[in-house]
């Protein structure tokens, strides 16, 4: 490009960005937004920073009388932000800061605190060798700020989630050709999850949100003692962008001056975490089996991908609901993709021939009154069973887009053994009975021969 054209090119580019900003501003003004939206899809919605909402946090901030110092961001959502911080002993920890309007209940009414305490007490009383695989709290406290008082939860630092290792941050919708764990890794991971869920049920606790995003791999012990330089080397330096308001005023005090992007845990090398050792996390939807809260609302994330029929229709969750979710999780671990992600195309297609058939108001869009699926334009609607789904693993697809953590993954197009397909089909079909009373208990699940198949 000539020197004469370069300034004009810069002018055009500058005009383009100015036009984009004006368009954003117009949209925000028309919808009563205070902030101009971020271009990133991996950070929290800046509109969640308001009285009653998220607490504004900046890198270097300290909490609990300067006992915890923020180094990086681990994750975010509408209900909280989670940060990599350092505790007084120099160890890296996870610091989760809740919204103010979700922090107002007494501590014994907050599941993350109450359930964590119940599980810790049960493990201590029974000498169960499971504490290392259930993420209980190290500390909790509150912090006051411009948006209210916020509950803060401290847990040991953990590694990436199952969903991050398998799929990266943009995970669902990827079917054939997905990476999947090696058979022995999948079996060991599944066994650990099932046995830790058995411990929770024995302790009288329902998890309520058992998904691949809530199962984390443990980090190797030395990682927790990394110096700041090592954190930057392995996790990358924090990336932040300036918070812009529609009226060009300062975002403070209710919002931070800059939004920080979280660590991409899907890119963490195998040398950092332990692929055969997991943690069950996130007890925000958990409760006592004998004393469920009167105002309980089932988890809504990803809905039909792991939510049981009774939770979807009746708002009821119990041990049998955990069994349904566990079945979906076991399939995803072994297959490399969600059972219901594209199996039926939508939540509507999952609901035929269920006890709730008459409550399924949009059933006419997907099925005739005999429960047969209607074809959609250009779609082949051949019936597919769980056994059929397992038989297709490793048959089709294209090579995975990234090498990932190759040593713990199955070779491309490696099919499942016929005997394993038989056993796994039997297990999943029992766990996915529409009527929760017909599903096996967690003790019956872990005694199934699939877990011992070599």
TrEMBL record:
Any single biological process term in GO: spliceosomal complex assembly
Catalyzed reactions per annotation: L-threonyl-[protein] + ATP = O-phospho-L-threonyl-[protein] + ADP + H(+); L-seryl-[protein] + ATP = O-phospho-L-seryl-[protein] + ADP + H(+)
PANTHER family registered for this protein in UniProt: PROTEIN KINASE DOMAIN-CONTAINING PROTEIN-RELATED
Organism placement in taxonomy: Eukaryota, Fungi, Dikarya, Basidiomycota, Agaricomycotina
Pfam families in the cross-refs: Pkinase
Native source species: Pholiota conissans
EC number in record: 2.7.11.1
Any GO MF annotation of the entry: protein serine/threonine kinase activity
SMART domains hit by this protein: S_TKc
Name used for this protein in its record: non-specific serine/threonine protein kinase
UniProt keywords, alphabetically: ATP-binding, Kinase, Nucleotide-binding, Serine/threonine-protein kinase, Transferase
GO cellular component, one term: cytoplasm
Domain Protein kinase: 68-451
Enzyme type, top EC level: transferase
